[in-house]
Amino acid sequence: MTDTAPRELPLQELDEVIIRFAGDSGDGMQLTGDQFTSISAALGNDLATLPEFPAEIRAPQGTLAGVSAFQVRISDFAITTPGDAPTVLVAMNPAALKAQVKNVVQGGAIIINTDAFNERNLEKAGYDSNPLEDGSLEGYRTYPVPMSQITRDAVAEHGVKPRDAERSKNFFALGLISWMYTRPVEPTMEFISTKFSGKELVIKANEAAFHAGYNFGETAELFESHYEIKPASLPSGEYTNVNGNTALAWGCVAAGQLARLPVFLGSYPITPASDILHDLSALKNFGVRTFQAEDEIAAAASAVGAAFGGALSFTTTSGPGVALKGESLGLAVSLELPLIVIDIQRGGPSTGLPTKPEQADLLMAMYGRHSESPMPIVAPKSPADCFNAAIEACRIALRYRTPVMLLSDGYLATSSEPWLLPDVDSLPDIGVDFHTGFNGTNEDGEGIFLPYLRDPETLARPWAIPGTPDLMHRIGGIEKEDGSGNISYDPENHQKMVDLRAAKIEAIDVPDVEVAGDQDATFCMLGWGSTWGAIDAAVDRLQQGGKKVAHVHLSHLNPLPKNLGEVLAAFDKVICPEMNDGQLVNLVRAKYLIDVKPVNKMNGVPFTTAEIESAALQAMDAS
Amino acid sequence: MTDTSPRTEPADWATDQEVRWCPGCGDYSILTAMRMLMPELDVDRENTVFISGIGCAARFPYYMNTYGMHGIHGRAPAIATGLAMARPDLDIWVIGGDGDMMSIGGNHLIHSLRRNVNIKILLFNNMIYGLTKGQFSPTSEVGKVTKSSPMGSLDAPFNPVSVALGAEASFVARTHDMDRQHMMDMFRRAHDHKGASIVEVFQNCNVFNDGAWEGITKKQNRDSNLITLEHGQPIRFGADGEFGVLVDNGAAKVVSVADVGVDALLVHDEHKPDPSTAFMLSRLSRGPFEPTPIGVFRAIERIEYATSSTSQLAMAHENQGSGDLASLLRSRGTWQV
């Protein structure tokens, strides 16, 4: 018989833990992981998350395809990735175990909901024998827990039907893990009552399940110890936990305020970008107008219309949507209107892997439009950096009157990290003035408006919006005469306009790249976008191993920083890890004739630190 | 007494750009009607915007001294929707042809109509692709012999008025390029309507489909083949009003007034909430060879899209207060380090 009095278990201190919650897509693993993340954030740990879910809303229950997982890494030191391999796996059913066990570090802990390991579920997961009994989990510390049964028992007294009771088992798991890592109970109680407000029975059931899990850890004599992870020594200040899509949405709102312009979003639902539409749709009190269009084309076209009217205009999408928007972007390039396209890259081509990240839209962003239609490209490096990237994209769009592409990806979109909140008063002023007066004269000496007379410094044309007296003008996709903007089929003029459009983008003021890591290294890793975290962590490990290594990260992909060629040329070897088949490598080789070596990965999973470290070591050794 | 003379002249609405339609094109008379109407509408040039797609008709904005955008093929209603949402204060006209609006832009057309965005759409229907030099269009009759259909086209045509009514358009009218006054009347009605309005203009392409509408729009055919719809009036036509329209067995039908008597005729009601009768009228004619209604088919009041969007913004503002960026960044909980 189990003694119900709390046992005095040793409290062990850890510097980090990587936990992966895995279950059926209906098991509430994302919610569980999110809540564990929030509690840990509040405790002051540094953290990074990696949600992973199937494209289907309810994939067939109990199957490998239906496994939904959430990885969270918490630490007492600063981190930039959610970790390569989980040290703890919570497996809610056989499919979750089968799909995830290969990722767990040798010797890692696996906490298993044994109630789900019946014949039917084992079969659905493709197990010939029960892994709990056949010895296949040797090498791991396994903790079998009848989660479903204990949860049912715990909630029964509240009058919850057994079938509904099952649904609280994720809170049992959360309770257990909260005990293991000495997380406080109160925040989760508050979360439950807010999240399920109005559903008294659900609140009671989830609370009971959570407590059951917490108490189980304390009393079950299954665990040798529990653990503590001290707060990380992060720069002091106020933090929030933010994922990339929310940071982008907030960045769009911030940019609107910094530019003193109303925000317009034309969008069409697409994974993994829809959350930006959702977030912005809920921010109407910021004057944000969202338009869910009939298709991707209309989403982009409406944004062009709103930009013509003087709004700070966005369209959000993923790769297939960018393909559809291409025609409107060509128009925006020709009209020279500010517009921000946000592409949350996913696996492709076509529908591909809608919930998995890729960085394979870079060349489409760069070249994927008809004719010569250059567009600036910016890319965030981390979830929180999405906020800065949105503001920077807007700054460029407004200052240079051009559509701008912002390339995020499915990894940044859903993973989260603590963000040291900026002082909003210190954010840059990115406002530009609308043009309100004549800027030329006709042969009779009368004032006229020349919609394509450029600012000599930025080459931007004046932005005069409808409603401005006297400045009535017509613009369009047909080639325009430089200055007047009138239709012109003149060959010389077309050459001039092509050159001007290119020169304008090429001259955009992007900051120089800085070399991170060892300044005197002869070996460099070049990266862009979401690989930043893994490359940064790999640099640390390589340095710990006594290697000298430099890291150059690009936040601007077009134009490239002016010093990039010179910086890269100084190294003997440069490798470039990318989640594509070498797209940045192609750009850099073509532009600078520098033989950057590609390190490519396209399996829908972000690079691990170990993969990059090993690619670096291999490249260093290669002659 | 107040001065009622218009603040602008038709010439004020013309640009210095040379009009580049083929000599004899029906577009010229539409342009003239529009320039003549503008002073009567008592609107400002700077608050008026013409948005177009691609095609011959789509050159229209270049010839109006207002703000204008010559967009991309089919997308004008979508561009205009964005502009109308961002700037509900503007008077926005959308100009396009049958290829632009019914084919490549069909999707945007129907969605802008169902949303009831405050834009005025003029659909120049010449039943042919003009700018690409004479292929059959989505309104061409079956069997149309063109360069892309040497043995005759296979596609059944759209009837733009039927399509618009099917898309729940709140204002639907039809006119033709041979009757300036009627065009001006229809454009004025479209302008005064709050919400999306669409006017189909039968327009002659004298190069690739010359005389396509003559069976109904030529002077000597108008009496017998044009049915002018007038709100509240029995639907009658013919030189002496000898023909009429009534509803029989769920369909509109042309009858001789002498046979049925005036009281049996359908009395036109633009404001009927149910679009079925208007739809029946749109089905009365199979093509420009038999009696065809022109005028306002439907004009009903329905909440306008940008107005609704603005009210939601106002409501959010009232309920949540003016958005504060610093609070937004803290809205998901924070902690101190």
CATH superfamily placement of the domain at 14-224 and 291-311 in chain B: Thiamin diphosphate (ThDP)-binding fold, Pyr/PP domains
CATH class of the largest domain in chain A equals Alpha Beta
Give the count of helical stretches of chain A. Answer: 20
Total strand count of chain B, please? 14
User: What's the order of the H and E elements of chain B?
Assistant: HEEHEHHEEEHEHEHHEEEEHHEHHE
Beta-sheet strand percentage of chain A? 15-25%
CATH class of the domain at 14-224 and 291-311 in chain B: Alpha Beta
Nearest-integer average pLDDT of chain B: 96
Q: Could you tell me the mean pLDDT of chain A?
A: 95
- SS-based structural class of chain B? alpha/beta
The CATH architecture designation of the domain at 14-224 and 291-311 in chain B is 3-Layer(aba) Sandwich
The biggest chain-chain interface is: A-B, 72 and 59 residues
Main sheet makeup of chain A: 7 strands, mixed
State the CATH topology of the largest domain in chain A.
Answer: Pyruvate-ferredoxin Oxidoreductase, domain 3
Strand order of the largest sheet of chain B: 2-1-3-4-8-7-13-9
* Rough outline of chain A: globular
Core attributes:
heterodimer, A: 623 residues, alpha/beta, Pyruvate-ferredoxin Oxidoreductase, domain 3, Rossmann fold, 4 domains, seven-stranded mixed β-sheet, six-stranded mixed β-sheet, 20 helices, 25 strands, globular, B: 337 residues, eight-stranded mixed β-sheet, 12 helices
